[in-house]
Design goal:
467 residues, alpha/beta, pyruvate-formate lyase- activating enzyme, eight-stranded mixed beta sheet, binds S-adenosylmethionine, binds iron/sulfur cluster
Amino acid sequence: MTQRAERAAPGRIDPDLYESLDAAMLHYPAPKARLSPRQVRAVWAGLASDIRAGRKQELLSVYLHVPFCAHRCKYCMYYSEEPGGPESIELFLRGLLDEMAFMAPALEGIRATHLYVGGGTPSALSPEQLDRLLSGVFSLFEFGPAGERGLECHPLNMTPRHLAVIKKHGLNRVSFGVQTLNRRTLNSVNRDCQTWRDIVALQGRLGRAGIPMVNVDLLLGLTRDTPRAFLETADRVMKLGPGSISVHRLVPQPAYLRDFYRGEEARCIDDINRFARAVLPGLKRLADRRGFLFPDYDPAHYENRVYTLITPGYLEEYGKQPTGGYTIDNVQAYSVLGLGPSAKSNIFGCGLCQSDGALGAGFSPDEKKLLFTRHDLKYEMLWHLVFSLDKHNNMVPGAYMRAAFAEDYLEVFKKPLRALAKAGAVTIKDGDLYFNRWTKKERFLIVMYLIRSAAGRGLPELSGLSG
Ligand SMILES: C[S@@+](CC[C@H](N)C(=O)[O-])C[C@H]1O[C@@H](n2cnc3c(N)ncnc32)[C@H](O)[C@@H]1O
Ligand code: SF4
């Protein structure tokens, strides 16, 4: 998952500093404050009354973060801890149920679409605890009849009893990590507990249980992995038969850099780039051979954060789900209510919110534990443009922008887009927007130009756009 930019705006533009267009969003003015759950609930209540009055679309997803893993992997970018014992999980669960009960009244009458129980590792809960969590969320929040109901798990601790619980609650998507099957890598990153036997057994149980959407995560660019071993992993996983495979590009974390790169980030990024370049054409050939579609594949680009390999069957099932998503990084997730330590929320057109990434001593409605970044609909539109640019490489699909927003983005950004078109940097055709400039620096500058416009700042000369 990508991370939305949340640091304070640096004073000047230096495109060479940035790896990703997300970073450009740092330059959009977005005031920050520490809020208590009670204050955040009031913001949600405001959104809910806008929805009831028809001023905003009723699109909401719920994300629950379970911050436990039996063994922490050294590369991981998500907040979790190795549980101190059954009582630490129990304390967390009671806190999460209290948090849900506290927030739910603000959203009364609003129907959520998607549910995602992620982590960490939700299967680190016992089956009884998972049952209480799912009973809680389905009784406290209203959900529409269709939508993804997903759970992340680890092959090590996802038992038949867990599976019975998720069947009972009608979950329709399960995702688990494999990352790589390279033993040297797994030993180095503290994931040596993973066995091929457990993976095969889990996939078999999920298939027999008829879970319609099963995803496996792979992680591209890990230490001591080789393109050959990674492609062997991909081939074995494809033959196993999940509906989709998410190939995540490693986002190196500080502890990982310290352990494996003496803190040298640039060297690590170079390695990941080399790895991606070496692996992607082979992955495409494998996908073709094994019946997986690979819609993101573009031989000229190897910098996507996630590549999805998907079977036609999974795609069909996915197509039955209503629009939306369950993480704030999914551009179609109009509002996401994220609960649990470190979970992020997007209160559409109002702000982003992230809770403390720490297991506290239960839930307290008046403690200032949430970092709130205020924004508005223009910011939301801008973020969609940036995401679109990153994801589709050079194109913003007009149809989906029109579906997401009541206002026309071409009108809202008319002035800067006209100037950019005149400079040859963009083309607008049939409501779609194409970026004609390809280098990282050019793309970054185009986005900065749009941001300056959205933020009401003066628009500079466009001479910097070439090269
Ligand atoms: C919450 S975890 C998956 C569930 C389960 N805990 C497991 O590991 O099997 C979600 C996925 O995020 C990916 N991930 C974790 N750390 C990452 C990082 N630093 N960079 C990119 N992807 C990462 C991994 O592929 C992982 O499977
Ligand atoms: S990859 Fe999964 S098991 Fe490993 S630390 Fe991250 S969440 Fe936990």
